[in-house]
Amino acid sequence: MTYVENGEEFTRDTNYIETRITADGRDGYPVEPGRYRLIAARACPWAHRSIIVRRLLGLEGAISLGIPGPTHDPRSWNFEEEPGGVDAVLKIPRLQDAYFARFPDYPRGITVPAFVEIETGRVVTNNYPQMTLDMSTEWTQYHREGAPALYPEALRGEIDEVAERVFREVNNGVYRCGFAGSQTAYDEAYDRLFTAMDWLVERLANQRYLVGDTITEADVRLFTTLVRFDAVYHGHFKCNRTKLTEIPVLWNYARDLFQTPGFGDTVDFDHIKRHYYEVHTDINPTGIVPRGPDLHGWLEPHGRELLGGRPFGDGTPPPPPKAYERVPAGHWVPA
């Protein structure tokens, strides 16, 4: 499978299945507990967002979670590491099966995250930016008591503006570096990425979170890139001006979130590294997965509490994850 087009700049396909799950069911898919399954690979930063938001809002009882393995082939994400090689609820070996159940000639990539209707086995949507916003705004009836306001109405304009720049220059910026097909494309992507990283340092130097004084959707979207930065983007994607650990403001910010319930406890470093280094064979043809970096620093003091802020606003932290959704200890920060 090829990710780099020689001589070309990387351009992400952002055409997704636009169907939405809403409280009024206007697209034919109403909010209903137990009706949908979230398929979200822990390796993927776009899917990782949905895992965090589901957990922060306490939607585990309303939306079940299926976790594919860390790698995929040209056909699809799969469930090879699950008992019997199939998803426990959908009973399919590949996510592709859910896409084809609704769109037999689906022409695009089989991406995560995706909501799948359990009874029909059909994919509903893979529109990951909208999925997390809808979990915040359409599933409110099923939020846990004390769920935080991740997309408060009064701040939506600013959250959208910040999140758009984070997506364009950082979330997607690391991919524009890693999948650049020419020196010129890489150089331009590199400069754009670190210009944005410098902007983030300036923004976060004196405020704890990206927008307002509580955790919002914008922080979730940035975190999933930062937590992968030293493990894969710095080396594998050549985003190597500086490591995250060498940028004090962003390193402390990322550790602050990592140590917040719902963030770090959803991180699977084993899946992250295996995915990037094993799947991107045109970048890493040997398939060798590096043993580093050292992860102990993720649990060291960060000092960001001195900036004030209220992580969950008027809400409360989520309870610990259910046993069957815990990241294996060996995939996490060493004790």
TrEMBL record:
Residues 308-335 are annotated as: Disordered. Pfam families: GST_C_2. CDD domains: GST_C_Omega_like. Residues 152-279 form the GST C-terminal domain. Signal peptide: none annotated. Gene3D superfamilies: 1.20.1050.10, Glutaredoxin (3.40.30.10). This is Glutathione S-transferase C-terminal domain-containing protein.
